[in-house]
Amino acid sequence: MDDMDLVPAPSAFWWVPPPGYDCLDAETQLEAQPGTEGVARWLRATIGAATGLPFPDGNDDDNRIVLSIDPTLPPEGYRIVADGYARRLQGGSAAGVFWGAQTFRQLLGPEAFRRAPVTARREWHLPLVVVEDAPRFPWRGLMLDVARHFLRKDDVLRYVDLLAAHKLNVLHLHLTDDQGWRIEIKRYPRLTEAGAWRTRTKWGHRASDLWNDTPHGGYYTQDDIREIVAYAAERHIRVVPEIDIPGHSQAAIAAYPELGNTDVIDTTTLPVWDTWGINPNVLAPTDNTLRFYEGVLEEVLGLFPSPFIHLGGDECPKDQWKASPAAQARIKELGLADEDELQAWFIRHFDRWLAERGRRLIGWDEILEGGLPPGAAVSSWRGYAGGIAAAEAGHDVVMCPEQHVYLDHRQDGGADEPVPIGYVRTLEDVYRFEPVPPGLSPDAAAHVIGTQANVWTEVMETRSRVDYQVFPRLAAFAEVAWSTRLPAAPAERDFADFERRMSAHYRRLDALGVDYRPPGGPLPWQRRPGVLGRPIEGAPPNV
Ligand code: ACM
Hints:
543 residues; alpha/beta; Chitobiase, domain 2; TIM Barrel; 2 domains; 8-stranded parallel beta barrel; 32% helix; binds acetamide
């Protein structure tokens, strides 16, 4: 294998001269030194399943793999030494050893990505190499919107594995929106009894007038959530839950009408929303709403150990608050200037509430409007500007500008993209995305704690559609988020070399069963014959 078939590219890689291979076989032992037992479990379960090799415990033969922690390495960094003797896989922490194990799997070839061996192969070649590597950013994320279209628990677990294979370490779950509430909250059962289901779904985007009349819904029980969080933790991935307030809340209001602005509209007749866009039905700024969401968050904190809790804060139209005597009285009582400050008051309340419980609030960049509480972090989605302002003001920032890393947006301008929406953002565009904009002061740049690709699922009604939008672009994104070798200047990045390495990576994605968009365009079945396979007739290009 060529050195740079690895994706994402490691910091350093060299062949041990003369170039050659050694072999793993049924006798290859696995020695897990203290702190690496979890990685050994993963290696046996995953690489063991793909190769059919048992990796017996042992430390008495050069034909072994030694996992160990070397605290002189960066916490998520690792070193692989395969020099014809015992193969050493060292990490700065268990996480580093785990990321090293992902590279080790790539070194064994694409068949090591299968779920079960296809042939009874007795020997697996391992190139004699040294790899030294560490990530560029501590936050390397993917947001999955499981609200617009529910993704079954098993499919979420599969995405955890796909993140791990790309050395991404944050799974942001967008759990609530106008179109569905996806997490069981024991004290408010109607959130899922009523709020997790809608009677029909808009096909396509805003300009479409086509409907899927099959009811859609689903939710994760608290046991499901515990399983997802534990599965991710074993893979050194943090799950960040998002409960979106005070906008994007119609599903919650449909379940509990008193959460809405009842002096403006009759909230008792609101259904879970069946279409897309920015919704005027937002939470009422009442004490009842605050207590309700404190109750929700108490259960959320019990399920998610993440230090960050995402509270949304995006796209909250202020029309109902302007029309509501109760909201206006609240503005006056609190001495606020306007409705923007009322939203800031909402966010500040929960920022304080989370801080008292040892957690930190993160929200979309709208939370900058009306004043941001000191410890809050920002997901910068409407471009770089919000992230720049927040970072210069000393807030931590996750860069996820929609112009670059919204993977629901089409990846080609051709007519055969399935349900094309948004900007055209090709694999190369994502490869040239730079999370730290030029001109940031060094102090502010240090507040860019990472980057995230976001997957909104309005037009992704199946797992296969999600795969199509996410891959192969997530591989380019992973290299941006992980690789210290990538020049910061987008124009200096060697996309041709990335494409060359991708030809090996497509074979890995094939073995993993990922329905990625092939480089030549969608396959016939991916175009989805029928209405889903074409741009909506007569619609503007941005449907
Ligand atoms: C967003 O895309 N509304 C965060």
